[in-house]
Design goal:
Length: 398
Amino acid sequence: MRVLVSAWAWPSHYLPLVPTLQALRAAGHDVLVASQPRLGETVRRSGLPFAACGADVDHEALRRRQMSGLTHADVPPAPPPGQSAKVWTADEWLRVSKVFSVFAARSELMLDDLAGVARAYRPDLVLFEPTTYAGPLVAALLGVPAVRHLHGVDLTYQAREVVPALIAPLAARLGLGPVDPLGDHTLDPCPPSMQIPTHVTRTVQRYVPYNGPAAVPPWLIGEPRRPRVCLTWGATTSSLGGGFAPPTVLDALSGERLEIVVAVTAADRERLGPQPAHVRVVESLALHLVLPSCAALIHQGGFGSTLTAAALGVPQLVLPQLVDQTFQAARLRATGSAAVLTAAETDGPAIGERVRALLDDPAYADAAAALRAEIAAVPAPADVVPDLEMLALTSRRQ
């Protein structure tokens, strides 16, 4: 079986797909990842072949152009889980359309090259990252199944009624009628207790953390001398203008007898400045290495941080800054394994109080352990490869 993978060039949107792609390769299938050139190094470092499609994109400039002055703070909340986007007013609908037009524009820039790669590669199915709409478009062009690979809670399902109009011109360019941006099938690594109700055919699979190539630093060998808390902040949040809470968090915890590991990008490390001895600042540390030794994780609510901590049974404090983070944080909090503070609630006393609760109240640890057990009970990526094989085989028979 040949699998063509479509993802736009942002590593955090590609990395959640890697365990599935590695499972496909281990089962003997051919896998080819296609994206803008900037993603090439990330793909090759994950051990998979890469084909460049389109030119590199200045994502920030594209976002500014498509959103026309709209900031992420102006984006309305998502509809309640599983409900229709028709709850939005006409103005709210327009704002959300501007957000998702950014993804449509990225897909437009890689569409023609992706179609050319697909014609030459002749895949049996196309597996795509949920906001890379070039994937289902090219699958429809070739008449093969389009498989959507989620990152976590299915927020893109909430915009299912907005996106078709945005990609209709792209479908017409390929000589196609309407194309479903949700594809033909969904691979879902979100724990079932966190997922929203949807009307799609799906295969639920275990979330397996993949944070890129990783090395275990010497300080991680052995038990910490104090309770260890990890603080991380995503590159996406920083780039989109979300609040930068780490300094507030570190000030709030300065009087606690904790070891704090701060995992950030190089750019954000410069924003932190010098720190005391009990605070260790590291760049791009793989969370799956440090979290097993941690009593809690504090983060902004990205899907990678959320599900990596969930898979390892670590209680969480989430400080969401963006709409998708707020939506996912609410689903996590409902499991009992996390506390959540909105941007308006985030101050030193509130952070200190929530962290002490995470460390001292066994209910959080018990709920985190239950969520970890739920994830472990779900079939691993290798176990769901036959579902994809059958999907491709059934399609060939039709």
